Structure formats: structure tokens, C-alpha cells
Amino acid sequence: MPARVGELLDGAGGNPFLATETLAGIAATGADGPEPPERLVLGVRGRLAGLRPDTLHFLRIGSVLGRAFSLADAAALCGRPASGLGAEVDEALAAALLHDDGERLLFRHDLLRQAVYADLAPSVRRALHREAASRLVAAGRSSADAVPHLLKSAEPGDTEAIGLLDEAATDVSAALPDLAADLAVRALELVPPRSPWRTTWENGPSSR
Q: CA end-to-end span of the chain, whole Å?
């Protein structure tokens, strides 16, 4: 079995609906690329059609945060207090889309999360990832928590992203030097070509 097909089926977590839609989609269009098959996305969209719009929006926000996410983080991105999302959480749990482990909310199957995420317009995904990075840092989380979101959203000249990527590179340099180098390169890519910062960055961490 090709590795990508195996990854997709693992993400289905044994759910017959997800596995069937995945295999049918692969048969129709192949399994190339990072996105789940279009047929799966359409099937999940149909399954979610009966949800209230607010619940669907909440799930989309959650899909940006990852397979597991905190209600507080989702509430911050929704622009609402966590206490005001009870109906959305209850509906998602009742529909067996999410599981609550007492500390975090988790999508029942990662392939379900991927399908919800794939249904977001690329520009919306990018904006939500950027906002997620800022809100995580504002909430006192480490720069490392923000990095996955920055890598999917930062644009050249984004000074906050440059600083956070540099900070994360410094934090992991001793234990994970290869990752630190990758983060530093990504930060440098965000520095505008004619910016006075570029010379400083190219001279290495000691000059910053």
C-alpha cells in the first residue's frame, strides 16, 4: 500500500464512512498532494450540513488549531468568551465529531479534521493561522507553539513572525540544531531584501 494511502486511512481511525469516502476519492483522483481527496471533503461537507452555522464555524476554527485544541484558544479565535460556546461544543460532541478529554477538545478522527480544514478558503486559512500565532503568544504561550501557524501564514516583512521564529530557533538550537537552522532560514526569508536587518541576520545570532 502506498505510504500516502496508508496515512489517509490511518487518519480515518477505523471510521467506515471516512475510510470508504477516502478510498473512493483516491480511486477517482489519486492520493498525491497533502490535501485529502475532494470526494472526502464533499462527503464531510454533506455530513456537516445539518449543523448550526455557529457550530460549523467553531469546527473550522478548531481545524486550524489542530487535531486537539483548547476551548480557550478556539474561543479567542472566534472572538467570543469560552463560556459562550457551550451550544457549539455540545452539538459537536452529540454529533460524534469531537471528543472532550477534560482538558482539550479533539476531533474524533484526524481525517475528519483535515476535511474540515480543506473546506476553508486558502486566504481564510492563512489569516486564521496568523491570528492564532499572535493570540497564542499574547496568551503567554511559547514561541514554539506559534511556529506551526507562522510557517503557514507569515509573509515577507512580518516583524513579529521574524522575531518569533528567531526566538524559537534559539530555544531549540541545543537539542535540535537542524530544526533551529530551518527556522532561522525561514526567518531570514521573511526579511525584505533591502532591509538593514538582512545584513544583521546574515552575520548570525551573535550580531542580533
A: 49
